[in-house]
Design brief:
Shape: elongated
CATH topology of the largest domain: TIM Barrel
Number of domains: 2
Mean pLDDT: 95
Strand content: 15-25%
CATH superfamily of the largest domain: Alanine racemase
CATH class of the largest domain: Alpha Beta
Low-confidence stretches: 1-9
Number of strands: 19
Structural class: alpha/beta
Distance between the termini: 22 Å
CATH architecture of the largest domain: Alpha-Beta Barrel
Amino acid sequence: MSASQAVTGHNASVNRATAEIDLDAIAANIERLRAAAPESLLQAVVKADAYGHGIVPVARAARGAGADYLGVALPSEAMALRESGDTGPIMCWLYTPDEDLSACAAADIEISVSSISMLEQVVSAGQRSEVRVGIHLKLDSGLGRNGSTPQEWEPLVREAKRQQDDGNVEIVGIWSHLACADEPESPATQQQLRLFCQGLATAADFDVQPRLRHLAATAGTLAFPESHFDMVRCGIGIYGLTPGGGLGSAADLGLVPAMTVRARVALTKVVDSGHGVSYGHTYRTSAQTRLALIPVGYGDGIPRAGSGSLPVDIRGKRYTAAGTIAMDQFVVDVGDDQIEAGDVVELFGAGAAGAATADEWAADSGTIGYEIVTRLGARIPRSYVGANS
C-alpha cells in the first residue's frame, strides 16, 4: 500500500464494491463444527450459492477441510457441483412434481423423498437413467415444511423398502430438521427428537436401517449433542454466523465470519444545517456537515429496512447510514471528518477493530444474518483469499 493509500484508505482491489470470501475462515469453521460432533459425519450445506459466498469455491474449500457430504436444496445446484468436478457425496432435497430428476440420478446425486409420489418420481428418474438412486427418507418431526407426516410415514417406509428390494433405490438415510434448536429452552427440540426416534423405530420394523440418520443443523450441532446421530448438516455455521441469538454470537460460538463486503466512497460534499438526505427526508443534517455517498443499495442486497441504522466503517471509524437506503446508493453523515471520494468503506465483515458483522446488520434491519449474506446481489463481485483460493 502506498503512502497516499494509507492516508486516504484507498484500496485498488475495491472498485465500486466487492465481497471478499476468506476460505480459510470457512475451513476453520468446519473444523470447529466437526469438533462439536466428532463421532458424526459432516455435511456442508452450500445451497443458495453457498449462502451468497459462491457455491463452487466454498464447496472445494469444504471438501478440503474434510466435509464428508455437500448439501443443496435444488437439483440444479447439485448438477452445478458435479459439472465443477466434484465427485463426492451430494444430497439435494427440494424439487417439484414436474422436474426431471434423470440427470441427478445419472450423476449419483442422493435425493430426499418425503412422499410416495416423490418416491415414484425418483424411481422413474432412476429407471430412465438405468441406475439405482440413493435416497434419504424425510420425516416431518415438527418443522411443518418438507417431510412425511408421522401418519404417512409407515406407508412411505414400506414402499421405499419394496423399491429397495426391487433394486430401484438404496435407502441411504433417514432425516428430519429441527425447528427451534437455536432456542435451547424450547421444548420443541426434545419433542422432535422423540418423534424422530419413533420414526427410526418404525423403519427398523420394516428392516430399514440406513447408514445415515441425521437431524441436526448448525444449532443442533452446537447445542444438542443428542441430535448428532450419524451426520450433522451445517450451513450458517460454516460461514461464520450465529444460527440464533439464543446460542450467543458467532464469536461466543468460536465461529469466524467468512465474508467481508467493502465499497468505495463515490462522492463527498459539504452541506448546510437542515439539509434533507435521500427519499422522504427522513434524515436532516443538524449542522454544516460532510456527506459521503456509498454506491450500493437495495438493488445490491443492502437491506432497505436498515435505513438510518446500518453501521459502516471508514478509516477505522464507525458511521451510520443517514436517511433512506435507495436502490443503488446510500449516504452517511461523516461530520467534520476528512473522508474523501475513493476511501474504502467496510460494510460488514469479521468484526475486527469494531467494524460491523452481518449479524449486527441483521439486528439493525430486523432480520437474520442468513438473509444479509444470501441476498447480496450479483452486482457485487466475489473475490477469494486463503489457502484454498
